[in-house]
Write a structure and sequence with these properties.
The chain is of the alpha/beta class and about 350 residues long. The protein is about 35% helix and about 15% strand. It has a seven-stranded mixed β-sheet, sandwiched between helices. A four-stranded antiparallel β-sheet has the order 9-10-13-12. It has a two-stranded parallel sheet with strand order 1-11. Strand 5, helix 5 and strand 6 (about 175-180) form a beta-alpha-beta unit. The relative contact order is 0.17.
Length: about 350
């Protein structure tokens, strides 16, 4: 750090993104990207938008917002597009959290929540998951805090039902509940239908996973018009042109090619079930993942050792050092060919280590 760095950030521990190697070609199963390219319409529309990059993009993102709203069955004023879902989450910490409205989230969940709390000076509580890594819904009743729930959770992949989240909403009527649905398209009920019943619900989603646009940085929040107005106040006070023109155009292309998105999601879910079954045959224990990854441990081989052995053989997965999950690896679901390579490589590693 330089001698000029603000004291208020001296203890800030930044989020650590997954490895993005430049020196070697890996099978990348570590950052939950889609194995499929974006829709051809997205590519075509983005290329066309590049012809006018001398102009600022539409700060309202009107066409894309209308397309997202129509797809979700909500209104224009119930949606806010952002630079990845990380931005909508950060906006939520800025808008709905302070000393009198501290944040609360699981102890094992998306690592950015604690970073957002720290950088915004928000007090927060981490609520332990149960021994089986499930969220105990009753732990979130009557908290009097702004609640952040990743559903399905990451890195565990385990989902709550819509009814369970509705009970959390019902039991916290005077604080905002943020439901982070980054992986919702891989087999989980969305809470978007609840936004008109509960004015304290904000749902966030992303184009990064199911819609093959991780490199474009596009996400959105859905909530009642009053919540969206609050978030727009933050947006227009920080970066009114938060979505660039090419990303906006690509997002419209994706929205017009829903069949392609759904086909890819089904393939990934099929590959997830196939991979989970093959890993179980080798003795791995897995959580019930409703995402585009599996979370797996082997009783006889250390999780870190498996991660390192895979990396040496050209396959990247995500390993976490936190004590409760150090035996696990999070493995993104790729193509069937990629998963077969992973499975055969793991068989070799287990043979060498057991």
């Amino acid at each position: 750090m330089s001698r000029f760095f603000s004291e208020k950030y001296k203890n800030l521990v930044p989020y650590t993104p997954g490895e993005q190697p430049k020196t070697r070609q890996y099978i990348k199963l570590n950052t939950n990207e889609s194995p499929f390219p974006p829709s051809e319409k997205a590519i075509e529309y983005a290329a066309e938008a590049a012809r006018n990059l001398q102009l600022y993009p539409d700060p309202e993102c009107r066409r894309l917002t209308e397309a997202v709203a129509e797809r979700l069955g909500v209104s224009f004023d119930e949606v806010l597009l952002t630079n990845g879902s990380d931005e909508i989450l950060n906006f939520a910490f800025m808008a709905f959290c302070d000393d009198t409205h501290p944040a609360a989230f699981a102890d094992i969940t998306y690592g950015f929540y604690s970073v957002f709390a720290e950088i915004n000076g928000v007090p927060y509580t981490k609520i332990p998951l149960a021994e089986d890594f499930t969220i105990r819904v009753e732990d979130y009743y009557d908290l009097g805090k702004t609640i952040f729930i990743a559903n399905p959770n990451a890195p565990t992949g385990i989902a709550l039902t819509r009814n369970q989240i509705e009970e959390i909403l019902r039991r916290n009527p005077d604080t905002v509940v943020v439901v982070d649905e980054a992986y919702v398209d891989f087999g989980t009920e969305s809470c978007v239908p609840l936004i008109r019943k509960y004015d304290n619900l904000l749902v966030s989603q992303t184009f990064s996973k199911s819609r093959s646009m991780a490199g474009a940085r596009l996400g959105f929040g859905v909530g009642c018009p009053a919540l969206i107005r609050d978030l727009n106040t933050i947006k227009y006070s920080t970066n009114p042109y938060n979505i660039n023109a090419m990303t906006m155009a690509a997002g419209i292309g994706v929205m017009e090619d829903e069949e392609y998105t759904q086909a890819n999601c089904q393939t990934i879910m099929d590959n997830r079930e196939y991979t989970a079954a093959e890993l179980a045959k080798m003795g791995f224990t897995l959580t019930d993942s409703r995402t585009n990854f599996v979370f797996a441990r082997h009783p006889d081989v250390d999780g870190g050792a498996i991660y390192r052995a895979l990396k040496e053989r050209g396959i990247l997965v995500r390993h976490f050092d936190s004590a409760r999950i150090a035996d696990y690896n999070r493995i993104t679901i790729g193509t069937r060919e990629q998963m077969d390579t992973l499975i055969e490589t793991l068989r070799t590693i287990l043979e060498e280590n057991i």
